[in-house]
Amino acid sequence: MSGFANILLEEKRRVLAEFTEVKAEFASRGWFAGTGGNLSMRIGPYSPDEFFFAVTASGKDKTRSTPEDFLFVDQDGNPCEATALKPSAETSLHREIYRLTGAGAIFHIHSVFNNIVSEWFWERRAVPIQGVELIKAFNIWDEDALIEVPILTNYADVPRIVPEITERLNPALPGLLIRKHGICAWGKDAFEAKKHLEAFEFLFEYVYRWELLNGTKK
Ligand SMILES: CSCCC(=O)C(=O)COP(=O)(O)O
Ligand SMILES: [Zn+2]
Q1: Which biological process annotations from GO are given for this protein (predicted)?
Q2: Residue 43 to residues 77, 91, 108, 115, 116: CA-CA distances in angstroms?
């Protein structure tokens, strides 16, 4: 029997219910413009070689709730059950982040603020943010802490982004930006991944407004 078949139906239902709730909440914030964005939640035991996760189906209107919003895939991105649904075109990004971090949930969204700051700081390949209280949401408590959110190349061929994740992911910072595309934020479970995503989006808006006020570039 495959590892996926061993996971209780009850657990699969629980994950899908939580997933549905998070997706609706993000939709209400306008985080899925034009079908952009994708979400995933891991289920069952984890090892870097074998794990399973629920992921949003590709190309769907994510502001709607239907019985065909998610499917379960394995560590290689292959569906665990017979389905006509296609996993997100960006599943390879989720797979690599799970492999490197063992996270419990990964949320990818496009926003105007995350797109603008990723371009504004592209030459530096990172968005610097210093001394803002909400950095504590990442469990970073240093006085006047400086974080650098990595910015990756937005290759049209999505799997080409994966080696940049491998190279640039900072285990102490649960997020990565893709240039003029969006952010992937993660956490040990959906609650933490949502907290991290909200904190990043707050900080990107702060940086955007601060840069605008100052008219400077670091
Ligand atoms: C319509 S935006 C281009 C694709 C994208 O960046 C995205 O986040 C959504 O892709 P998916 O295959 O997950 O629907
Ligand atoms: Zn995207």
Answers
A1: L-methionine salvage from methylthioadenosine
A2: 14, 15, 18, 30, 34
